[in-house]
């Protein structure tokens, strides 16, 4: 009995990966199915089950509602790809940090720390920017009108980061970071084209301005 | 249509089923090849309901736990029939061509 209670507690903790609305409707039912498929005396969640539960939750959270027009669905997928590119940029800044540092130090010993500070700043900001971008992709997919406005502001922010990197000499000292960020920028501008295309227009008018704008303040 | 989707719809083809029964039915239908887990199943059911292919038939409480039974909608029946016919036609074509190929080489 206590084994099963243990297992149930572990399963319900994992269900936090699912959207609240889904949990309200299906949590009890899903727990029943999970416990029914558990072995006798099982206390811990198996790795494969855990991966499957988490993947299911992420699928539900990231899914574009089926009533969204195709153009919006494409835009959201592009935004996810853009988020992946942002994450790749972040990974690149982390991995190449030492090389970039020594390249700058060698080339401009007088000002290297100032230039390097730019890169470090971008490195610190990118996870936050990526998280915000993912949230935006969700809001765009769910037809939030305000999200479209925030999207443009956000895109401006990423453009600024790109310019900032350029001004820090990223083209010379941190080419990998710059290429990866430029790729993210390109993916995102194409997402914007889809979001503002004629075919998407009606979707945002129908749902109205139900969204809440999130300011993308950034300072470093 | 993905195989998992096809198998879930097939599991619901003749009668309504609850989640655990769908999982065992899918395993049976695929002859043990596809082992559906709860996360995958519920993500699929959520999508299929949103697409109007599957709907909730009834609810029961068994051992103080909620059991929800799902069934195909008319659109779900239609889509499954169309997909089954397509797979069937493909399989027939493959088999007949294989026979033909064997016939020419031997």
Give an overview in words.
The complex is a heterodimer of chains A (220) and B (106). Chain A has 220 residues and is mostly helical. Chain A has two domains: 2-62; 70-207. Helices cover 78% and strands 0% of the residues of chain A. Chain A has helices at residues 2-14, 20-36, 47-62, 70-107, 112-141, 145-167, 170-173, 175-195, 198-207. Chain B has four helices and three strands. Chain B has a single domain, classed as Arc Repressor Mutant, subunit A (Orthogonal Bundle), CATH 1.10.10.10. In chain B, strands 1-3-2 form a three-stranded antiparallel sheet. The model of chain B has no long low-confidence stretch (mean pLDDT 91). With 106 residues, chain B is α+β, with helices and mostly antiparallel strands. Chain B is elongated, with a radius of gyration of 17 Å. The A-B interface holds A 22, 26, 28-37, 48-49, 52-57, 59-60, 63, 65-66 and B 18-20, 23, 37-43, 46-47, 50-51, 62, 65-68.
Topology readout:
The complex is a heterodimer of chains A (220) and B (106).
Chain A: H1 2-14, H2 20-36, H3 47-62, H4 70-107, H5 112-141, H6 145-167, H7 170-173, H8 175-195, H9 198-207
Helix pairs in contact in A: 1-2, 4-5, 4-8, 5-6, 6-8
Chain B: H1 3-11, E1 17-18, H2 19-29, H3 38-50, E2 54-62, E3 65-72, H4 74-105
Antiparallel strand pairs in B: 1-3, 2-3
Give me a quick take on this structure.
With 220 residues, chain A is mainly α. Chain A contains 9 helices and no strands. The longest helix of chain A is centred in the middle third of the chain and has 38 residues, at 70-107.
Please describe the biggest sheet of chain A, giving its number of strands, its sense, and whether it closes into a barrel.
none
The pLDDT mean of chain A sits at 84
Q: Roughly what is the average pLDDT of chain B, rounded to an integer?
A: 91
| Oligomer category | heterodimer
* Main structural class of chain A: mainly alpha
Characterize the biggest β-sheet of chain B.
Answer: 3 strands, antiparallel
The total number of structural domains of chain B is 1
Rg measurement of chain A, Å: 22 Å
CATH class of chain B: Mainly Alpha
* Total domains of chain A: 2
Total number of beta strands of chain B: 3
Number of helical runs of chain A? 9
Helix proportion of chain B: 55-70%
Kindly report the name of the CATH homologous superfamily of chain B: Winged helix-like DNA-binding domain superfamily/Winged helix DNA-binding domain
**First-residue to last-residue Cα separation of chain A:** 53 Å
Which series of helices and strands of chain B comes N to C? Answer: HEHHEEH
Kindly report the greatest chain-chain contact and the residue count on each side.
A-B, 25 and 20 residues
Radius of gyration of chain B, taken over Cα atoms and rounded to an integer in Å: 17 Å
Class of secondary structure makeup of chain B: alpha+beta
Envelope shape of chain B: elongated
Looking at CATH, which topology of chain B would you report?
Answer: Arc Repressor Mutant, subunit A
């Amino acid at each position: 009995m206590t084994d099963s209670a243990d297992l149930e507690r572990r399963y319900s903790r994992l269900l936090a990966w699912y959207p609240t609305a889904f949990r309200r409707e299906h949590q009890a039912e899903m727990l029943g199915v999970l416990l029914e498929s558990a072995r006798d005396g099982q206390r811990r969640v198996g790795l494969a089950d855990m991966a499957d539960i988490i993947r299911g939750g992420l699928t539900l959270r990231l899914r574009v509602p089926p009533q969204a027009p195709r153009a919006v669905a494409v835009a959201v997928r592009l935004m996810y790809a853009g988020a992946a590119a942002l994450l790749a940029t972040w990974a690149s800044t982390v991995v190449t940090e030492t090389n970039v540092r020594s390249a700058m130090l060698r080339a401009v010993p007088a000002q290297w720390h100032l230039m390097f500070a730019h890169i470090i700043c971008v490195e610190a900001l990118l996870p936050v920017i990526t998280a915000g971008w993912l949230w935006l992709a969700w809001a765009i997919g769910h037809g939030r009108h305000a999200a479209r406005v925030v999207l443009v502001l956000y895109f401006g922010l990423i453009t600024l980061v790109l310019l900032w990197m350029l001004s820090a000499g990223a083209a010379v000292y941190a080419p990998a970071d710059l290429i990866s960020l430029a790729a993210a920028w390109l993916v995102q501008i194409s997402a914007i084209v889809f979001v503002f295309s004629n075919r998407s227009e009606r979707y945002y008018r129908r749902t109205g301005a139900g969204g809440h704008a999130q300011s993308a303040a950034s300072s470093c | 249509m993905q195989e998992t989707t096809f198998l879930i719809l097939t599991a619901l083809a003749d009668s309504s089923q609850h989640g655990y029964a769908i999982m065992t039915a899918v395993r049976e239908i695929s002859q043990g090849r596809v082992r559906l887990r709860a996360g995958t199943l519920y993500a699929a059911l959520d999508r299929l309901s949103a697409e109007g292919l599957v709907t909730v038939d009834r609810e029961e409480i068994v051992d103080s736990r909620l059991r929800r039974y799902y069934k195909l909608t008319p659109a779900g029946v239609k889509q499954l029939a169309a997909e089954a016919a397509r797979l069937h036609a493909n399989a027939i074509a493959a088999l007949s061509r294989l026979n033909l190929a064997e016939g020419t080489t031997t």
